[in-house]
Amino acid sequence: MSRPPFILLVNPWITDFAAHDLWAKPLGLLQLASLLREGGCRVAFVDCLEAHEEDAEKVVGSGRKRSRFGTGKYPRIRIPAPAVYENLSRPYHRYGISEKTLRRRLERLPEPDLVWVGSMMTYWYPGVRETVGVLGEALPQSPLWLGGVYARLCPDHARRWSGADRVVVAPVHRLPSMVQAATGFRLTNEAQWRSFRSHPLPALDLVRRPAYAPLLTSLGCPFHCPYCASRLLQPRRARHSAARIHREIVLHHACYGLADFAFYDDALLLDADTTLKPALRKLCEEGYELRFHTPNALHVRALTEEWCRLLFQSGFATIRLGLETTHPDHQRRWGGKVETDMFRRAMDRLRKAGFTRDRLGVYLLCGLPGQTPDEVARAVHTVRQAGGQPHLAEYSPIPGTPLWEEACGTSSYDLQREPLYHNNTFFACRRPDFTYEDLLALKDLARRAKKVLL
Prior knowledge:
CATH architecture of the largest domain: Alpha-Beta Barrel
Strand content: 15-25%
Distance between the termini: 61 Å
CATH topology of the largest domain: TIM Barrel
Helix content: 25-40%
């Protein structure tokens, strides 16, 4: 192909019991779009999770006002729950724009030379399959690829069930050759794909009326937590420079008038003294009034007095910490990242820096194999005493992680063959000493603890 190919990138629907836009933009697709565009391709982006719904009569939540931090509800339509969830009485929805709106947006586009669909949670695959089905009907001549988290973690399942022509699991640096083989076009920026530090800014211009900007200042995490897929998805550590971080924030603020920025890093503050720290200091010196959010947990061990002061001064509005548990043996077994006294000291430093209780959320793991309800309840109490808001992270078994085999042995459900059982709402690792009712009681305990603090 002599002419530049036209590549369509699609963020698929979500199917689940609950979904909320808590700073959840498809950053991987936006980065891919930017790399393809700089390599000479023409690109377009369709976001099935966009909040701006054209067919408003068909969905609930269309056009709802965003919160002051840019988060909000997705449009949704109720659908029958899969058979494996028949014993759960909660309503099940498809989240995102209507099928009519999706088809209308596809009709406005020229025929793509390649369609590339992203994916996230393994148990959201029915939404991926529905999206792929519509794309296949509307664009029957276009090859359709599937990438993303679900594709990487469950490639065999994705090949059988997604409907995609190809499931992409290759590392980023190999993608240019795959694009060339599929389209006949050689990208002009192959070297740029090989280094995270060389990547262009994500193509935020393809997002309709962005309410916040996603930021990724680093890849990977130095820890080996047995429940986490970070090492599987990003085996290498890499960081952007202070100049690049500063430039990205300033440009997004100038071009889109954005004040809210969400960090997607797995280890934001670790080894960041020469990257993120000087970038934040420069923003403070220049007088920017911005709000930063950390939906992924910050590592408690990184929270020195200096970091806490800088986070407050630079405008961090939403802090999430990873305590996980107060059980000493589990703290060591689950990564060795934090101790309870270390957490208490970090909370004291954050409070002294100026953070109020409503801004300090703490993630606690809940329902892991070997964990008891009493252990989780004690952790909730510890967080409450320290002046933080407990947020339960209900365990979702993740294929390929060190805890996966133990989860499969603990669960009475077929986690290997059916990703729907990975859904933390379903709680497939329930057992006689940690029942589904125990999970609901702990969630209620955490809700009540947060209300007391507010």
